[in-house]
Specification:
By secondary structure, this protein is mainly alpha-helical. It has helices at about 40-55, 85-95, 105-115, 135-145, 150-170, 185-190, 200-210, 215-225, 225-230, 265, 295-305, 325-345, 355-365, 370-375, 380-390, 395-410; strands at about 5-10, 15-20, 30-35, 65, 70, 240, 245, 250-255, 280, 290-295. Among the domains are: about 5-70, no CATH class; about 85-190, DNA polymerase, domain 1; about 200-325, no CATH class. It has a 3-stranded antiparallel beta sheet with strand order 1-2-3, with helices on one face. A hairpin with a 5-residue loop joins β1 and β2 (about 15-20). The longest helix has 21 residues, at about 150-170. The model is unreliable at about 415-450 (pLDDT under 50).
């Protein structure tokens, strides 16, 4: 059994020592804990309380007790006496501590939290509650009732899941209530609209009506470049002799207080003419988005007149006023008018990004291999390319149709890619293909827009 020793300190006070043998055995190591920081009465009372805990623990150190310090709360655990934070408050703390996040993306996530803060579901402002008071049922109510697209809900859910995970790490929660509540990705993909691909006539008419921006549309559909990449293109990025275009910059949104994330190599090259409202020049979307692509002779002709007489660091495409292409201004003053004019001629509206989709449709129709298309678009993974554009591949369905037709009409199915489907002839036994033609069995699902 543990026992208490009283010792007189040099200052005249009393310290209390609790002693016992580990495990209560005769040969157990002697253990000792000292209480001397308080008054005599406090030290004795604390020693008595500690002795009872040692006895209850079987002559062992109480679980969680640190010698000389007492019960110490791990740094990752929340203080039980402190009021738990609201979801939106710990959410902001979470967003601000993420290291690998661009200023624009951080600002976007903080904006999401502000939206959640004022979102009322079934009469309740769910996300203004303490983080400990939000249940899995609350999240399901939000997912069911919030009047937004399934894609938007999935995007917000990713942030919510991260916030709760951070709350678990900080010790406010023992489990993440968002686990298992995310919309299924298959449903998200099914809910997205079909990709829009322009016909040759639609594109031709759009270019004709685009006026001074006709070349921008032509180069966009001819290269598959994103709007932010086209607007950031410098004259020095275009090599007409080698027929190449280098994509190593893109316009990025500023963060809070106009925070930017400009790489050092680019910062050394920037001048006042390279500035734009609420945006800054940075690196493209992903590592593989930094790429060099080949352009056709037709695009060489278009780009030659665009860069003639310009300095190496001048933008290839600018507004009518000579300023860098601002996405919002372009959408309001150019794109909407163009879409209205096209709609008057019976051509359905489309987005600027659909020019990129159309570019891929051309490449697929012409038989370009998907890995080459992936590299040209700057997709980080071939899966993104296949999921987004795989359904355009025509050869698979045509090949299958031909095989089945041959079998049903009495012909012989010939093995090997590129071979004839066989001549018709009664009584001939169909032979199993020993080597399939090029595999075209790809997914028809569509990757989310931001990934393409």
């Amino acid at each position: 059994m543990a026992y208490i020793e009283k010792r007189r300190r040099t200052d005249g006070g009393i310290s209390a020592r609790v002693k016992w043998r580990l495990g209560g055995t005769r040969d157990g190591a002697v253990q000792l804990e000292v209480f001397s920081a308080g008054t005599d009465a406090q030290n004795l009372a604390r020693a008595e309380g500690f002795k009872k805990m040692v006895d209850a623990a079987g002559q062992r150190w109480p679980d969680g007790w640190v010698k000389g310090e007492g019960f110490v709360r791990p740094a990752s655990e929340a203080d039980p006496l402190t009021e738990p934070p609201r979801f939106v408050d710990i959410g902001e703390e979470y967003v601000r501590q993420i290291v690998d996040l661009s200023p624009g993306q951080r600002k976007r996530y903080l904006g999401h939290l502000r939206v959640l803060e004022v979102t009322r579901i079934r009469g309740s402002l769910i996300f203004t509650k303490p983080v400990t008071a939000i249940s899995e049922a609350d999240l399901k109510d939000w997912l069911i009732d919030w009047d937004r697209s399934l894609k938007t809900k999935a995007n917000y859910h990713g942030l919510i899941h991260g916030v709760f995970g951070y709350a678990v790490k900080r010790g406010w929660l023992s489990a993440n209530p968002a686990v298992g509540t995310a919309p299924r990705m298959s449903r998200v993909k099914q809910s997205r609209p079909e990709l829009r691909f322009l016909t040759e006539r639609e594109l031709q008419r759009a270019v004709e009506l685009a006026g001074p921006y006709a070349d921008l549309l032509t180069v966009a559909v001819g290269t598959g470049m994103r709007f932010g990449e086209l607007g950031a293109l410098w004259v020095s990025d275009v090599d007409l002799e080698r027929r190449t275009v280098r994509i190593n910059k893109a316009w990025k949104r500023n963060g809070e207080d106009d925070a930017t994330d400009v790489p050092g190599w680019l910062a050394k090259l920037l001048k006042p003419k390279h500035t734009m409202r609420d945006h800054h020049l940075g690196v493209p979307k992903t590592t593989k988005s930094r790429r060099t692509i080949t352009i056709s002779p037709a695009l060489v002709t278009v780009l030659r007149k665009r860069i003639e007489g310009k300095a190496a660091d001048d933008f290839v495409f600018v507004s009518n006023a000579g300023y860098p292409l601002h996405n919002g201004d372009f959408s309001t003053h150019v794109w909407r008018k163009l879409m209205t004019a096209l709609e008057a001629e019976g051509i359905a509206r489309f987005r600027f990004h659909d020019l990129r989709h159309t570019h891929v449709a051309w490449l697929v129709a012409g038989g370009a291999p998907l890995p080459h298309i992936q590299a040209r678009l700057g997709h980080e993974s071939i899966t993104t390319t296949i999921d987004t554009y795989g359904h355009l591949l025509p050869a698979g369905d045509e090949l299958i149709s031909g095989i089945i037709d041959t079998a049903l009409t009495g012909g012989t199915i010939r093995p090997g890619p590129g071979s004839s489907m066989g001549k018709k002839g009664k009584g001939k036994k169909s032979e199993k293909r020993t080597k399939p033609a090029r595999d075209q069995g790809v997914s028809r699902s569509v990757e989310k827009e931001a990934a393409t």
